[in-house]
Design a protein that fits this description.
The structure is a homodimer of 198-residue chains.
Chain A lengths: L9 H19 L2 H8 L3 H7 L3 H24 L6 H22 L1 H11 L3 H25 L7 H11 L17 H17 L3
Helix pairs in contact in A: 1-2, 1-4, 1-6, 2-3, 4-5, 4-7, 5-6, 5-7, 7-8
Chain A binds a DNA duplex (30 and 30 nucleotides) through helix 3.
DNA sequence: CAGCTGACAGATTTCAATATCTGTCACTCC
DNA sequence: GGAGTGACAGATATTGAAATCTGTCAGCTG
């Protein structure tokens, strides 16, 4: 009955879950579907994930982490100035989100649905991202490029002020003409605010 | 049969519509309910509004305009500096939205539902608000308090950067502790960005 | 005759029955 | 004997028939 001789791992289940979500969408993707895709009974899936909610949480966390990891490289790019790294990081975040939303709108919509109701996962993700921002801004403060009372506060402010360019709730506006200019205007204003001598 | 002898006006219908929306919510509020509340047949309502969508659009526009009007006074408060007017205006916008959301969460949720799908009305509302912001920033540019390439662009940037504090999508976060500090951090950063000599 | 009515057709929503799914567990079978 | 199974009970989702709603319009009524 099993379609492969490979052992059933959490990772294989997550892969199958993403595939099922892609095919069926968040409302109609069932644990039974995931098990069928793997050629096992649904009881086996429950051996690795206590509940359907836990499975969804894990697959969503995995999805969010993929974005996070891509950005981490920019934080430590010592060949560029902190200001440039900040601009690059924000542009990369916008680009990554826009790409995800544009390439596979249905999967993006699926994860957008999954994400709300998963407060903890989102909170961690945001903490991760603002942590990266904090390191860039702290480097700028240390080098004298930026003048900020507190890098962590400034990082959260920058993150929230650019929400329009990374929050999934705004995804439908990411294809509008002029969005690039809006992004530049917001980032320009924020960078000037960080630079300004206090 | 009519419960009053007053003539049926668009305004009276809008008032009744808001009341019905408050009572029944957006999903269950019907034109028949509105007519019943007014003591007339639903045919009479269709004499003033071509469709249910038009009625909803009108009542939503009316609701948005009430916020707009409150803020307009701050724009022309010549006794305060442009920077202070900008801070006051943003704080008033945040406060107005937060108040609406906190006082009558169900009505707020109702209008939040109505608002999306009403692209034109929202667009006009945002144009109205950014227009007010533009006048404040232009005044600051003229007085030398601000240094900006283009007040209208800066106004849109400020508006979008503060979206977290007025966009209904974020309403549930407006009661979190620390939101005030976040607001101050974002506004502070933006004001510094506007001030900075370019 | 200007404003209002209410019966009507087609579209949409509701509700209850039916079907499917979630999560458990005693069991099987390498 | 530990990964995997599948029947099961209660929870959730689907479906289609019945009820309600939207939008129109010929005809009241003051």
């Amino acid at each position: 009955m099993p379609s492969t001789t490979e052992t059933l791992t959490a990772e294989r289940i997550l892969e199958a879950t993403e595939e099922v979500l892609r095919r069926h969408g968040p409302a109609k993707a069932t644990v039974v579907d995931v098990a069928r895709a793997l050629g096992v009974s649904h009881g086996s899936v429950y051996r690795h994930f206590r509940t359907k909610a836990a499975l969804r949480e894990a697959v969503t966390k995995r999805w969010l982490d993929r974005t996070s990891e891509r950005l981490a490289g920019i934080v430590t790019a010592e060949d560029r100035s902190p200001e440039q790294r900040l601009r690059d990081w924000l542009a990369a975040l916008f680009e990554a989100k826009r790409h995800k939303a544009g390439d596979d709108p249905e999967l993006f919509a699926t994860y957008t649905v999954l994400v709300d109701g998963l407060g903890g996962v989102v909170h961690d993700h945001i903490a991760d991202l603002t942590g990266q921002l904090t390191r860039i801004i702290a480097a700028g403060a240390e080098s004298g490029d930026f003048t900020v009372p507190d890098p962590a506060t400034a990082a959260r402010a920058v993150f929230h002020a650019t929400g329009r360019f990374h929050d999934p709730g705004y995804a439908r506006e990411w294809t509008e003409p002029g969005i690039e200019e809006e992004f530049e205007a917001v980032v320009g204003l924020l960078v000037r605010g960080l630079r300004a001598a206090g």
